[in-house]
Amino acid sequence: MTGPTRTICLFLAASCLRIEAPLLYAQTPPSGTARLQFIAVLSRHGVRSPLWTAAQLNAYSTEPWPKWDVPVGDLTPRGGTLMKLLGAYDRQYLISAGLLGPNGCADADRFYFWSDTTKRDVESGRALATGMLPGCTVAVHTVPKGADPLFSPQAAGVGKTDPGVAAAAISGRIGGRPPALVDTYRAGLEAMQRVLLGCKPGDECPPRGKKVGKLLLEQPSAVRRQSDGLADLSGPLNAAATVAESFLLEYTDGMKEQDVGWGRVNKSNLRDMMLLQETYNDFSLRTPYLARARGSNLLSHMLRSMQQAVRGEAVRGALGKPGDSALFVLGHDSDISGFGGMLGISWLLEDYQPNCRPPGGALVFEIWRDTASGKRTVRTYFRSQTLDQMRQLTALSLEAPPSRAAIFIPGCSTASEGWACDWDAFQRAAEAAIDPAFVSPDAPQASPPRQ
């Protein structure tokens, strides 16, 4: 499609985006008699160091990767600060919505925090709570030992997966031809490889005299079974996802321009490379069988926490206690992707690719109650700092908020503001997404609170 036809289509698409923008990015509570009753948040941890070691990353590049001041996979000091900024914004928003009082710590006991046991998640939870409830004593709850069944159900013995079905579920989305993915995304993979190898346009690649251990495009592409009974994609897209994430972490941690991808990565081509990451995540994390196996237990217990808030009485398996106003769950990008695959939802934020889950990004479910009619609705959205807000350590406020995208949930969303779901319809949609074979009846028992 070229020329005038393409111009008209682009104009129409832009016009549609302008019409929908106020709905997508609305940061204010609903008007009228609706009041926020409960908020359930699934948040990714903050900016961390890469999960691959320097040796693993260096194998794909002609120059060594930058050194980090924290161990592999740990939250960085800047990552903690960014989480505090998010918490401070959440505080302002929740005060404006009437869920949190403007002074003191009287409401702190009604805010429940649960975290995976990894250090970066616990520290992210503490930082978020510090920004949201400054000067208050807030516990971040975790399991005392072993795998948390909310985040690692297979490792914790919740449900039994079929690795053959898991592999087939991924293969069935690509016609049983993993190498076809490489052909489809070759242009992006080649662009990333040029960054890794330091190739200049028109010159020999890799540059003469430069050595590299692994060429991205020469890795075999396959669907592989995993030890946890699930499956994954291996090959160029898998490696490219880790490389793109590592560049993203350098950028958002505020590294000097000459150190972000050796000075060859900027906001523009970073976004292009993130497409490779999200493509890999779509197949490996959002494929429904895998998403339900990994995410059913977490979604089930978060749903029961929402039901407990609505009923005002204890519900078996809920996180927190009756009377709580908020639930904050600190997990991983894979958990958010899993919810996306289970519920069939998508989002698009400024600076990012579709369904991206940046550090500190969160999937949010809000229960609103109309004080006149008693009717309850659920508004769902994804919120995250933009790339510039993270890189510049921007203070957030109601006037300068993080980016937010309202989410339409198939099977329950309506055309009303924020694509709200009726509470009963939301419960049915969530329950339909959950596979009871991967659900435990009780919530995990918490260790002594980490404060």
- Radius of gyration over C-alpha positions, nearest whole angstrom: 22 Å
| Uncertain residue ranges | 1-26
| Portion in strands | 5-15%
Mean pLDDT: 92
Number of helices: 13
Structural class: alpha/beta
The helix/strand series, from N terminus to C terminus, equals HEHHEHEHHHEEHHHEHEEHEEH
Number of E strands:
10
- Separation, N- and C-terminal Cα atoms: 58 Å
Summarize the biggest pleated sheet.
8 strands, mixed
Helical coverage, percent range: 25-40%
Instruction: Give the overall shape, derived from the CA principal axes.
Output: globular
Explain how this protein is built.
The chain has 451 residues and is of the alpha/beta class. It is built from 13 helices and ten strands. The chain has helices at residues 3-24, 54-58, 77-96, 119-132, 163-171, 179-184, 186-197, 236-252, 267-285, 288-311, 333-343, 387-391, 423-433; strands at residues 34-44, 111-115, 140-141, 222-225, 231-234, 326-331, 362-370, 376-384, 403-406, 421-422. Strands 1, 2, 3, 6, 7, 8, 9 and 10 form an eight-stranded mixed beta sheet that branches. Strands 4-5 form a two-stranded antiparallel ribbon. Strand 2 (111-115), helix 4 (119-132) and strand 3 form a beta-alpha-beta unit. The protein is globular, with a radius of gyration of 22 Å. Residues 1-26 have low confidence and may be disordered.
